[in-house]
Amino acid sequence: TVLKEEREDIEMMRGALETLYNAMATELTTDKISNGVMPCQLNAEMFAREKDTVTLLLSLLEEDDFYVRYHTVQLMTALVSKAPKGCLQEAILSSPLGVSRLMDMMGEREVIRNETLLLLSSLTRTNEEVKKIVVFEGAFDRLLAIIKDEGGPDGGIVVQDCLELVCNLLRENSSNQVFFRESSFLPAVPAFLQLRDSTNFGAILPPQKAANLLC
Fold first, then answer.
1. Cα-Cα end-to-end distance for the chain
2. How confident is the model over 62-97, as pLDDT tens digits?
3. Residue 114: CB partners within 8 Å, gap ≥ 6?
4. What pLDDT, on the 0 to 100 scale, is given for residue 4?
5. Backbone angles phi, psi at 150, to 5 degrees
6. Count H helices, E strands: the chain?
7. On the CB side of 66, how many CA atoms lie within 13 Å of its CA?
């Protein structure tokens, strides 16, 4: 009700979104209901069943307030992992420009951009239609640019998140594979496999660099 009827009260909106996120993302291992379902999962399922929930969340991504947009992306990330499988993906696909609004978040400040990477990784793990639309919206260009800006294979967790998303988009999706190969993205790959200090072949790679190379 707050998210629908109190849109002009930014502080209340922030509080409502943060509360919803905490209710769906926090896992209390000692607090299970009788049938073994975690409270956060039950909360997510109930929230996902509400009419036009995803349409409402997508509309909040257009709000001017940074924290409203940030908490909305956080909430959607929690929903995709806790709500019934495929529920969020189907709702986003049924919403006009749903994927486009999510892709717009890739151009936001780093905090929102990084959270959006996690959301898109979750959304594209199994849904082929979402994969195709994300690629159509320019995902490869944006992801490769972020990887480069973040230091390539020498970069941190953001590079790993980008590479995992690229892998999701290509995995078992022939049309995306052809697009990647024929759109001049393939020549950029070798550069991401070269570490800055490539002369010491016997050196043990730091965990993050190893994770980036193994994506």
1. 42
2. 999 999 999 999 999 999 988 878 888 998 999 888
3. 158, 161
4. 82
5. -90, 5
6. 14, 0
7. 7
